[in-house]
Known about the structure:
Blueprint: E1 5-8, H1 16-20, E2 27-31, H2 34-38, H3 41-51, E3 55-59, H4 68-81, E4 85-90, H5 92-105, E5 127-131, E6 143-148, E7 153-158, E8 166-169, H6 179-198, H7 204-226, H8 231-251, H9 255-267, H10 271-286, H11 291-300, H12 306-316, H13 333-343, H14 345-348, H15 357-367
Parallel strand pairs: 1-8, 2-3, 2-4, 4-5, 5-8
Antiparallel strand pairs: 6-7
Helix pairs in contact: 4-5, 6-7, 6-8, 6-10, 7-8, 9-10, 9-13, 10-12, 10-15, 13-15
Amino acid sequence: MFPRRVEIGPGCLARLGASLAAPQGRRVFVVSDPGVASAGILERACDILLASGLEPISYVDVPCEPTLSVVDRAVSACIDSGADVVIGVGGGSVLDTAKLAAACAARGRTLTDSPGGDWLTASALPLALVPTTAGSGSEMTQTAIVHDERQGAKLALTGPALLGGVAVIDAELTLSLPGHVTADSGLDALAHAVEAYLNRRASQMTDALAERSVVLVARHLRHALRDPDRLADREGMTMASALGGMACASSGLGAAHALGYPLDTRHRVSHGRSTGVFLPHVVRFNAASRPERVRRLAALVGGEDLAGWMEECMDQLRIPRRLRDYGVTRESVPDLAEEAWRTGQRLLADSARVLGVDDAVAICERAW
């Protein structure tokens, strides 16, 4: 399942109001974050909504890694606003928060007060998603990730209620990204595409999406970092992100994401970076069961060693590749790996190669 309407191309934010197909006077709850607001993007979006006869209500209290309590506050604010449309303008964390706000507010309950999974298939408030980073692909999926601070783990929620009806993918909105966000987001897009391609649930459709995403990352990510104002590279990365999101939404992910989650929650490493640290090691591990697919991706990026190319790419992006660089001690590696294996079974279920707890420890030790 994908959004019913997708606006793509530089400047397409101008079509945001028209894409909602909403009658005059509707109140719109606009979820964003301080960075997007300070860049002027939120104001631009609200001005477009006002010009379309809509009443935007801005909410910017979303951090880079939202927790249950953060989402609950957003849901309560959405309910109190009386809005009947929700828009997310920001990176993956903002988009996921907007998804959950639209689904929960439709029922008048916070996320904490929504036990079970029936609500994930119920109707949500109309939802539009406007990514301002190029990595999560959240605008194309029906999944939201939130940090459950009670259990100290990531919570993945999936269902039709979390699928936006409209996606507005405007590469111009990514021109103001800081370099480290461009790099981390790009790694996220690459990991989505690679893991979707190596997953046992991969199909001809997801193969086409993932292959194209990998090609676009190889072609544009490093250039986007070196020349951040070149729109062609920004546009290439927004497409890589969207295609990677579509691919993994259909075929799933794998061990790099599972292993990265504890690094994210324990050491506050960004999602793209925490996954990227493990990706080359997971590719080498999976090559034993998916050799032809690993070779195919290597050929697409212009080489023979896919994992080696990834490590070279991370070096060029100036992203540290070792767990020790993020404060992980040698002694804590087995515990980190065991936690990842225990909490990541959902992600490991369709991995290219069965990964046991000893395998997880070995990969983490190589990454250290």
